[in-house]
Design brief:
With 355 residues, the chain is mostly helical. The chain has a domain of 207 residues: Serine Threonine Protein Phosphatase 5, Tetratricopeptide repeat, CATH 1.25.40. 63% of the residues lie in helices and 0% in strands. The chain has 14 helices and no strands. Helix 4 runs antiparallel to helix 5 and helix 6 runs parallel beside helix 9. It starts with a helix and ends in a 12-residue tail after the last helix. It holds the Pfam family TAP42. GO terms for molecular function: protein phosphatase 2A binding.
């Protein structure tokens, strides 16, 4: 049966749009998501037309499939890959729909015996338990690293082969065998990437299932967000130059700054956040004293913690010049001290070192 022109042009347009979407930088915009939906719709229409035309059958060998129709074996893969890259509110539902498309793609390849031995075993493991599928069944870091390196090299070789076959577009258009090889090389690359995607989807579904079964996890995250916002609201920092009027009217450490009419009741200074940060850049990590030594001693005197009374050591009391008796007594003491120092010069009592 001759292929209708609308399927060929629709498939070519959908592939071109998908390739463009993979390199667009605005993947988080509504316009991008809208274009993804439109491209998905085109690929779904291609799949409907392929089924309507009965292009493939599980009872026929690959040799009986025309070269032009082999490219349509990848419709389900392209659709699944685009679904996996899309995001909406029902992520789990999207992933399960993606698994269905990948499964259809692999089942069709299995019907035409296009799965090589390694991929055949992976498909059997996946079919046995899709929800727990993993490229590396054993939890061994060394084995996991070896498998990743091996699959990376394999994918690199497949891409190089595909690039080599697609270099000469003119020759491909006139050589049916080369076109067929190109399509089959593309299928091998897509199959390799399919199993990697199945591994990732299995991990993501397990994570989503854990969150769904343990709603307290999301509840804890919500409570933490609420506590953080509450702490920020109660903190002293604010983008305002001064606190809200309601807070000022309640009064603070030094009383209200503004009256009910909004008039200032005491001096105050407006500081912005930048000034506060600059002042604290070179601040010490310990608390500095909040009063001087004189202020501290005055406070201790006020509390009665300083002993008073008695003479201070090393200081002589002043003599009242009008008290003649006290003055004569002090004069006699001075004369006696002078006579003693004259009779006993300094060093006269030290005879140990004299010859």
């Amino acid at each position: 049966m001759e292929e209708p022109q609308n399927l060929r042009s629709l498939f070519a347009a959908a592939r071109a749009e998908k390739t463009a979407l993979e390199t667009r930088p605005d993947s988080n915009t509504d316009a991008y998501r809208s274009d993804v939906i439109l491209t998905i719709a085109k690929l779904e229409e291609c799949r409907r037309l392929v089924g309507l035309l009965s292009l493939f059958s599980s009872n026929e060998p690959l040799e009986e499939v025309s070269t032009g129709d082999i490219q349509y074996l990848t419709v389900e893969y392209l659709l699944a890959d685009l679904l996996q890259r899309s995001y909406n509110s029902d992520r789990e539902g999207t992933l399960r729909r993606t698994l269905d498309e990948y499964d259809r793609y692999l089942a069709r390849l299995d019907d035409y015996e296009l799965l090589e031995e390694g991929n055949k075993k992976l498909y059997e493991r996946y079919s046995a338990n899709p929800s727990t599928f993993s490229l590396i069944p054993v939890n061994d870091a060394a084995v996991r690293r070896e498998v990743k390196v091996s699959r990376f090299r394999e994918e690199k070789e497949l891409k190089q082969k595909l690039e080599y076959l697609s270099q000469n577009q003119g020759r491909l258009q006139s050589d049916d065998d080369d076109v067929r090889k190109l399509y089959l090389a593309e299928i091998k690359l897509y199959t390799h990437q399919t199993f990697q995607s199945l591994d990732l989807i299995s991990q993501e579904l397990a994570m989503l299932s854990t969150i769904r079964k343990n709603p307290e996890i999301s509840q804890q995250n919500s409570q933490e967000d609420q506590r953080r916002r509450k702490n920020e609201e109660q903190s002293s920092y604010s983008e305002r130059l001064d606190p809200p009027i309601s807070q000022l009217l309640k009064g603070g450490k030094f009383g209200p700054i503004l009256s009910k009419e909004g008039k200032p009741m005491q001096p105050f200074t407006l500081l912005d956040r930048r000034t506060q940060l600059q002042q604290g850049v070179f601040g010490p990590s310990h608390n500095l004293p909040t009063m001087t030594i004189e202020e501290y001693l005055d406070e201790e005197h006020r509390r009665g913690n300083v002993l008073q009374g008695g003479e201070q050591s090393g200081m002589k009391p002043e003599v009242d010049e009008d008290d003649m008796d006290r003055a004569d007594e002090e004069t006699m003491k001075a004369r006696a001290w002078d006579e003693y120092t004259e009779a006993n010069p300094k060093g006269s009592g030290n005879t140990l070192n004299r010859g």
